[in-house]
Amino acid sequence: MTASSTRRTTATRSRLAAVGSIAVAGALILTGCGDQTDNGGSEGTKETGKSSTAPLFDKLPKKIQDAGVIKAGTNAEYAPMEYQEGGKIVGVDPDIAAALGEKLGVEFQFTSGSFDGLITALNSGRYDVAMSSITDNKQRQEGLDDKGKKLGPGVDFVDYFLAGTAVYVQKGNPKKINSIEDLCGQTAAVQRGTTYEKALQDQSKKCTDGGKKKIDIESFENDTEAQTRVKSGGAVAGVNDYPVAVDLARKADGGNAFEVVGEQVDAGPFGIAVNKDNKQLTEALEAAVNAIIEDGTYKKILEKWGAGTGAIDKAAINGGK
Protein backbone atom coordinates (compact mmCIF):
# COMPACT_ATOMS: atom_id res chain seq x y z
CA MET A 1 0.00 0.00 0.00
CA THR A 2 1.18 3.37 -0.67
CA ALA A 3 0.41 4.63 2.74
CA SER A 4 -2.66 3.31 4.01
CA SER A 5 -4.89 2.02 9.54
CA THR A 6 -5.01 0.38 12.10
CA ARG A 7 -4.74 -0.49 8.56
CA ARG A 8 -6.68 -1.80 8.78
CA THR A 9 -9.24 -2.88 11.28
CA THR A 10 -12.85 -2.60 11.97
CA ALA A 11 -15.17 -1.48 14.62
CA THR A 12 -13.27 1.17 16.52
CA ARG A 13 -7.61 0.05 12.56
CA SER A 14 -8.03 2.06 13.08
CA ARG A 15 -5.57 -0.05 10.83
CA LEU A 16 -4.29 3.21 12.43
CA ALA A 17 -2.03 4.22 14.94
CA ALA A 18 0.99 5.95 14.09
CA VAL A 19 4.21 5.16 12.52
CA GLY A 20 4.85 7.25 15.39
CA SER A 21 2.12 5.47 17.15
CA ILE A 22 0.42 3.41 14.61
CA ALA A 23 -2.75 2.55 16.32
CA VAL A 24 -6.25 1.76 15.90
CA ALA A 25 -9.74 2.91 16.46
CA GLY A 26 -12.91 0.89 16.49
CA ALA A 27 -13.43 -2.32 14.63
CA LEU A 28 -15.28 -4.09 11.90
CA ILE A 29 -15.38 -7.81 11.57
CA LEU A 30 -13.36 -8.97 8.61
CA THR A 31 -15.29 -11.10 6.14
CA GLY A 32 -14.64 -12.22 2.60
CA CYS A 33 -11.65 -13.53 0.69
CA GLY A 34 -9.62 -12.82 -2.40
CA ASP A 35 -5.92 -13.67 -2.43
CA GLN A 36 -3.98 -11.66 -4.94
CA THR A 37 -0.24 -11.66 -4.43
CA ASP A 38 2.26 -14.09 -2.92
CA ASN A 39 5.72 -12.84 -2.16
CA GLY A 40 7.12 -16.33 -1.79
CA GLY A 41 8.12 -15.86 1.82
CA SER A 42 10.03 -13.38 3.92
CA GLU A 43 13.76 -13.35 4.28
CA GLY A 44 13.45 -15.52 7.34
CA THR A 45 15.43 -18.37 8.80
CA LYS A 46 17.83 -20.66 7.08
CA GLU A 47 17.13 -23.52 9.47
CA THR A 48 13.64 -24.94 9.09
CA GLY A 49 12.04 -28.29 9.67
CA LYS A 50 12.21 -30.88 12.41
CA SER A 51 15.95 -30.48 13.01
CA SER A 52 15.85 -26.72 13.61
CA THR A 53 17.90 -25.52 16.55
CA ALA A 54 16.04 -22.21 16.77
CA PRO A 55 15.34 -21.37 20.44
CA LEU A 56 11.56 -21.46 20.20
CA PHE A 57 11.08 -24.16 17.57
CA ASP A 58 9.81 -26.72 20.09
CA LYS A 59 6.94 -24.40 21.05
CA LEU A 60 5.38 -24.64 17.59
CA PRO A 61 2.61 -27.08 16.63
CA LYS A 62 4.03 -30.20 14.93
CA LYS A 63 2.18 -29.39 11.71
CA ILE A 64 4.07 -26.11 11.37
CA GLN A 65 7.36 -27.69 12.46
CA ASP A 66 6.99 -30.24 9.67
CA ALA A 67 6.00 -27.64 7.08
CA GLY A 68 8.79 -25.25 8.07
CA VAL A 69 6.58 -22.28 7.22
CA ILE A 70 3.85 -20.11 8.70
CA LYS A 71 1.37 -19.01 6.03
CA ALA A 72 0.46 -15.37 6.65
CA GLY A 73 -2.39 -13.47 5.05
CA THR A 74 -2.00 -9.72 4.58
CA ASN A 75 -3.27 -6.78 2.56
CA ALA A 76 -0.08 -5.35 1.10
CA GLU A 77 -1.39 -1.86 0.40
CA TYR A 78 -0.53 -0.15 3.64
CA ALA A 79 2.90 1.47 3.66
CA PRO A 80 4.97 1.51 5.73
CA MET A 81 3.35 -1.46 7.49
CA GLU A 82 3.01 -3.78 4.51
CA TYR A 83 3.18 -2.97 0.82
CA GLN A 84 4.65 -4.22 -2.44
CA GLU A 85 7.94 -3.09 -3.86
CA GLY A 86 9.66 -4.76 -6.78
CA GLY A 87 7.20 -7.63 -6.69
CA LYS A 88 7.90 -8.37 -3.05
CA ILE A 89 5.86 -7.69 0.09
CA VAL A 90 7.90 -5.45 2.40
CA GLY A 91 7.41 -3.20 5.40
CA VAL A 92 7.22 -3.22 9.18
CA ASP A 93 5.13 -6.36 9.46
CA PRO A 94 7.19 -8.53 7.06
CA ASP A 95 10.40 -7.48 8.83
CA ILE A 96 8.93 -8.30 12.24
CA ALA A 97 7.70 -11.62 10.87
CA ALA A 98 11.16 -12.46 9.54
CA ALA A 99 12.63 -11.75 12.98
CA LEU A 100 9.97 -13.94 14.61
CA GLY A 101 10.84 -16.66 12.11
CA GLU A 102 14.45 -16.57 13.23
CA LYS A 103 13.37 -17.29 16.80
CA LEU A 104 10.88 -19.96 15.80
CA GLY A 105 12.98 -21.72 13.17
CA VAL A 106 10.43 -21.37 10.38
CA GLU A 107 9.76 -18.98 7.51
CA PHE A 108 6.76 -16.65 7.21
CA GLN A 109 5.24 -16.74 3.73
CA PHE A 110 3.00 -13.74 3.01
CA THR A 111 0.10 -13.72 0.56
CA SER A 112 -1.79 -10.51 -0.18
CA GLY A 113 -5.58 -10.46 -0.41
CA SER A 114 -8.44 -8.13 0.46
CA PHE A 115 -8.24 -6.75 3.97
CA ASP A 116 -11.84 -7.44 4.87
CA GLY A 117 -11.42 -11.11 3.92
CA LEU A 118 -8.37 -11.93 6.04
CA ILE A 119 -10.08 -13.26 9.16
CA THR A 120 -12.53 -15.37 7.18
CA ALA A 121 -9.65 -16.84 5.17
CA LEU A 122 -7.70 -17.48 8.37
CA ASN A 123 -10.56 -19.37 9.99
CA SER A 124 -11.14 -21.38 6.82
CA GLY A 125 -7.57 -22.70 7.06
CA ARG A 126 -6.13 -20.76 4.14
CA TYR A 127 -3.62 -19.05 6.43
CA ASP A 128 -2.00 -19.92 9.73
CA VAL A 129 -2.05 -16.26 10.78
CA ALA A 130 -3.23 -12.90 9.50
CA MET A 131 -0.72 -10.07 9.95
CA SER A 132 -1.82 -6.82 8.39
CA SER A 133 -1.95 -3.96 10.89
CA ILE A 134 -5.15 -5.47 12.28
CA THR A 135 -6.49 -3.75 15.33
CA ASP A 136 -7.08 -6.11 18.23
CA ASN A 137 -10.47 -5.50 19.81
CA LYS A 138 -13.22 -7.46 21.56
CA GLN A 139 -15.43 -7.40 18.49
CA ARG A 140 -12.91 -9.30 16.41
CA GLN A 141 -11.91 -11.54 19.27
CA GLU A 142 -15.53 -12.64 19.67
CA GLY A 143 -16.53 -12.68 15.99
CA LEU A 144 -19.18 -9.95 16.23
CA ASP A 145 -20.35 -7.32 13.78
CA ASP A 146 -20.65 -3.66 14.75
CA LYS A 147 -24.14 -4.30 16.14
CA GLY A 148 -23.06 -7.21 18.34
CA LYS A 149 -24.40 -9.94 16.07
CA LYS A 150 -22.38 -13.16 16.01
CA LEU A 151 -20.75 -13.63 12.62
CA GLY A 152 -18.11 -16.24 13.32
CA PRO A 153 -15.85 -17.83 15.93
CA GLY A 154 -13.57 -14.82 16.25
CA VAL A 155 -9.79 -15.00 16.58
CA ASP A 156 -7.06 -14.65 19.15
CA PHE A 157 -4.50 -11.87 18.82
CA VAL A 158 -0.84 -11.62 19.72
CA ASP A 159 -0.30 -7.88 20.15
CA TYR A 160 2.95 -6.44 18.79
CA PHE A 161 2.41 -2.73 18.06
CA LEU A 162 0.38 0.36 19.00
CA ALA A 163 -1.29 2.81 16.64
CA GLY A 164 -4.06 5.41 16.54
CA THR A 165 -6.30 7.20 14.05
CA ALA A 166 -5.18 10.33 12.19
CA VAL A 167 -6.74 12.81 9.78
CA TYR A 168 -4.86 13.87 6.63
CA VAL A 169 -5.76 16.62 4.16
CA GLN A 170 -4.44 18.24 1.00
CA LYS A 171 -1.13 20.03 1.47
CA GLY A 172 -1.84 23.54 2.69
CA ASN A 173 -5.07 22.42 4.38
CA PRO A 174 -7.37 24.52 2.16
CA LYS A 175 -10.49 23.72 4.20
CA LYS A 176 -8.77 24.48 7.51
CA ILE A 177 -9.50 21.06 9.06
CA ASN A 178 -7.72 20.72 12.41
CA SER A 179 -9.28 17.58 13.89
CA ILE A 180 -11.80 14.82 13.22
CA GLU A 181 -14.41 17.02 14.93
CA ASP A 182 -14.05 19.55 12.10
CA LEU A 183 -15.41 17.02 9.59
CA CYS A 184 -19.06 17.60 10.54
CA GLY A 185 -20.90 18.50 7.33
CA GLN A 186 -17.86 17.61 5.21
CA THR A 187 -16.93 14.70 2.92
CA ALA A 188 -14.26 12.29 4.19
CA ALA A 189 -12.65 9.32 2.45
CA VAL A 190 -11.66 6.08 4.13
CA GLN A 191 -10.89 2.42 3.46
CA ARG A 192 -13.86 0.14 3.95
CA GLY A 193 -13.89 -2.35 6.86
CA THR A 194 -11.33 -0.52 8.97
CA THR A 195 -11.48 0.79 12.48
CA TYR A 196 -10.98 4.27 11.20
CA GLU A 197 -14.11 3.94 9.10
CA LYS A 198 -15.89 3.16 12.38
CA ALA A 199 -14.18 6.19 13.94
CA LEU A 200 -15.74 8.37 11.22
CA GLN A 201 -19.15 6.78 11.75
CA ASP A 202 -18.93 7.43 15.49
CA GLN A 203 -17.88 11.03 14.90
CA SER A 204 -20.69 11.56 12.42
CA LYS A 205 -23.19 10.51 15.08
CA LYS A 206 -21.61 12.95 17.52
CA CYS A 207 -22.05 15.64 14.88
CA THR A 208 -25.78 15.00 14.48
CA ASP A 209 -26.31 14.53 18.21
CA GLY A 210 -24.80 17.98 18.66
CA GLY A 211 -27.06 19.59 16.11
CA LYS A 212 -24.51 19.65 13.28
CA LYS A 213 -24.59 17.99 9.87
CA LYS A 214 -23.40 14.41 9.52
CA ILE A 215 -20.13 13.50 7.85
CA ASP A 216 -20.52 12.32 4.25
CA ILE A 217 -18.38 9.18 4.47
CA GLU A 218 -17.04 7.75 1.22
CA SER A 219 -15.69 4.22 1.77
CA PHE A 220 -13.37 2.56 -0.73
CA GLU A 221 -12.10 -0.97 -1.29
CA ASN A 222 -8.51 0.12 -0.73
CA ASP A 223 -6.73 3.04 0.84
CA THR A 224 -5.15 4.19 -2.42
CA GLU A 225 -8.60 5.08 -3.77
CA ALA A 226 -9.37 7.05 -0.62
CA GLN A 227 -6.10 8.96 -0.97
CA THR A 228 -6.87 9.75 -4.61
CA ARG A 229 -10.25 11.15 -3.58
CA VAL A 230 -8.63 13.51 -1.08
CA LYS A 231 -5.89 14.52 -3.51
CA SER A 232 -8.46 15.42 -6.19
CA GLY A 233 -10.46 17.53 -3.73
CA GLY A 234 -13.49 15.24 -3.86
CA ALA A 235 -13.10 14.71 -0.11
CA VAL A 236 -11.76 17.33 2.27
CA ALA A 237 -9.91 14.74 4.36
CA GLY A 238 -8.96 11.12 4.73
CA VAL A 239 -8.71 9.11 7.92
CA ASN A 240 -6.10 6.45 8.52
CA ASP A 241 -3.77 4.86 11.04
CA TYR A 242 -1.39 7.50 12.29
CA PRO A 243 1.84 5.89 11.08
CA VAL A 244 0.38 5.28 7.68
CA ALA A 245 -0.89 8.85 7.44
CA VAL A 246 2.49 10.20 8.50
CA ASP A 247 4.26 8.04 5.90
CA LEU A 248 1.80 9.18 3.24
CA ALA A 249 2.35 12.86 4.06
CA ARG A 250 6.10 12.37 3.96
CA LYS A 251 6.31 10.50 0.65
CA ALA A 252 3.36 11.23 -1.65
CA ASP A 253 4.50 13.54 -4.46
CA GLY A 254 7.72 14.14 -2.59
CA GLY A 255 5.86 15.37 0.46
CA ASN A 256 3.78 17.90 -1.48
CA ALA A 257 0.42 16.12 -1.65
CA PHE A 258 -0.83 15.76 1.94
CA GLU A 259 -0.35 16.81 5.54
CA VAL A 260 -1.51 15.30 8.83
CA VAL A 261 -3.64 17.53 11.07
CA GLY A 262 -4.35 17.30 14.77
CA GLU A 263 -3.30 14.52 17.13
CA GLN A 264 -3.84 10.81 16.72
CA VAL A 265 -6.80 9.45 18.65
CA ASP A 266 -8.02 6.10 19.96
CA ALA A 267 -4.60 4.44 20.01
CA GLY A 268 -4.80 0.67 20.35
CA PRO A 269 -2.85 -2.53 19.64
CA PHE A 270 -2.21 -4.22 16.33
CA GLY A 271 -2.25 -7.98 16.67
CA ILE A 272 -1.26 -11.08 14.75
CA ALA A 273 -4.56 -12.95 14.32
CA VAL A 274 -4.60 -16.69 15.01
CA ASN A 275 -7.41 -19.26 14.88
CA LYS A 276 -8.86 -19.76 18.37
CA ASP A 277 -8.26 -23.52 18.12
CA ASN A 278 -4.52 -22.98 17.63
CA LYS A 279 -3.52 -21.99 21.17
CA GLN A 280 -0.07 -23.52 20.80
CA LEU A 281 0.78 -21.28 17.86
CA THR A 282 -0.58 -18.24 19.71
CA GLU A 283 1.65 -18.93 22.70
CA ALA A 284 4.68 -19.59 20.48
CA LEU A 285 4.18 -16.24 18.72
CA GLU A 286 3.82 -14.44 22.04
CA ALA A 287 7.13 -15.92 23.18
CA ALA A 288 8.77 -14.93 19.88
CA VAL A 289 7.55 -11.33 20.06
CA ASN A 290 8.92 -11.04 23.59
CA ALA A 291 12.21 -12.56 22.45
CA ILE A 292 12.78 -9.97 19.70
CA ILE A 293 11.79 -7.18 22.10
CA GLU A 294 14.31 -8.41 24.66
CA ASP A 295 17.23 -8.80 22.25
CA GLY A 296 16.70 -5.38 20.61
CA THR A 297 15.76 -6.64 17.14
CA TYR A 298 12.23 -5.29 17.46
CA LYS A 299 13.39 -1.76 18.24
CA LYS A 300 15.81 -1.74 15.30
CA ILE A 301 13.06 -2.79 12.88
CA LEU A 302 10.70 -0.04 14.03
CA GLU A 303 13.44 2.58 13.87
CA LYS A 304 14.29 1.47 10.34
CA TRP A 305 10.74 2.29 9.25
CA GLY A 306 10.26 5.38 11.39
CA ALA A 307 7.67 3.57 13.50
CA GLY A 308 9.36 3.73 16.88
CA THR A 309 6.49 5.50 18.62
CA GLY A 310 4.36 2.39 18.14
CA ALA A 311 6.69 0.19 20.18
CA ILE A 312 5.38 -1.95 23.02
CA ASP A 313 7.31 -3.23 26.05
CA LYS A 314 5.78 -6.71 26.16
CA ALA A 315 3.59 -8.89 23.97
CA ALA A 316 0.02 -9.59 25.06
CA ILE A 317 -2.66 -12.04 24.01
CA ASN A 318 -6.03 -10.38 23.33
CA GLY A 319 -5.00 -7.12 24.99
CA GLY A 320 -7.41 -5.04 22.90
CA LYS A 321 -10.67 -3.67 24.25
TrEMBL record:
Region annotation Disordered: where it falls in the sequence: 35-56
The protein's matches in InterPro entries, at most eight in alphabetical order, are given as: Solute-binding_3/MltF_N
Q: Which PROSITE patterns match?
A: PROKAR_LIPOPROTEIN
- What name is this protein filed under? AtrA protein
Record's keyword annotation contains Signal: yes
A Pfam short name: SBP_bac_3
Q: What keywords is this UniProt entry annotated with?
A: Signal
Q: Which residues form the Solute-binding protein family 3/N-terminal domain?
A: 69-309
